[in-house]
Amino acid sequence: MTFLLLLGVPLGLGHLYLWRRLVVNTTHPGRARRIGTAAIAVGFLLLMSALVLTRRVWPEVASFLGWSGYIWLALVFYAALILGVAEIPRRIMLRRVALVPAGAPEEEPEPVPDESRRLFIARSFAIGTGIAAGGVVGYGMTQALGAPVLRQVPVTLGKLDAALSGFRIAVVSDIHLGPLLGRSHTERIVRMINEQEPDLVAIVGDLVDGTVEELGEAAAPLRDLVSRHGSFFVTGNHEYFSGYEPWLREVEKLGVAPLRNERLTVAGGIELAGVNDVTGKSYGDGPDFDRALAGRDAAKPLVLLAHQPVQVADAASRGVDLQLSGHTHGGQMFPFNLAVTLQQPAVAGLSKVDDTWLYVSRGAGFWGPPVRVGAPPDITLVELRSS
């Protein structure tokens, strides 16, 4: 019930706003208005069904609800955003076409626009909004569903032995296998990583949105990952929503080693550690930095895998040299990137917190709408360099 209230109320208000601007303001009472009203209502029902039912129905139905409901969500969001920005010019134009009776006193009520001109303005804004929102969402879908961008990011670590300079870590996060992304998505990611011949692969959380029974086959191509020093995985928040214990066993079967508040030495000179996601606290499986970093060799550089960038505060206080994270999706759909900064220390890319480097991937998948605007998916090759 709380979930429905938190999402249903604002989404309902958003649909009501669109109904008034796109249906009521552009039609006279009659058939056209009834059709428009029904379309808005059906869209709202599809969206709520996608949010609530995709894990409770057959895969085919979940796929239909996911695609239709989440695309509708993106259209509603951008249409409401565009209409909101257009409110001031819309009101100015309506005022300019208002008819003021000759000789009317100053205290006369607000002038009323001529009906034909009012309809023309309302319909023009509605059509423009539809074209703009459809264009943004269409572009965003090509970004979300296209191949991830391959990024190369050099990071200089003062403790790194010169013989290990050039060590490359393939970082991928937020793959989000689920009703909309399946086996072919995993195959493309694995192929892109293998083509780069990395020294190590780091999957930093949010691999799945569903159970092993539902998505085990979609994750299976991970067994084909190839690197010189292995593939490693840490939990994200969505693993805890999807049954983290079965998934930890499953990824291990696929040759990807989970790091559960653990550390090891790779390539003879790099300390690699991984901590559980902060969401794990609610499941009795939270992050434990002290356990993960116990016994480390302070003379060697320490690379930490941690799903959420916010965990860098604990990492920096313990002398971690580099933290690799995901979670933010780079905001996924502008302007959500502006909101990410309210919760996380970085949205995407390389930054520094005290003496700790922080790299945040935008992720290779998406959550919710299959749309990315201003935040293309990525796979990153982090190249460690000695000073």
UniProtKB/TrEMBL annotation:
The chain crosses the membrane at residues 6-23, 35-58, 64-86, 120-142. Residues 167-330 form the Calcineurin-like phosphoesterase domain. Keywords: Hydrolase, Membrane, Metal-binding, Transmembrane, Transmembrane helix. This is Metallophosphoesterase. The keyword Transcription does not apply. GO terms for cellular component: membrane. It comes from Lentzea tibetensis. Gene3D superfamilies: 3.60.21.10. InterPro entries: Calcineurin-like_PHP, Metallo-depent_PP-like, Metallophosphoesterase_sf. CDD domains: MPP_YkuE_C (cd07385). Belongs to the metallophosphoesterase superfamily. Pfam families: Metallophos. Its cofactor is a divalent metal cation.
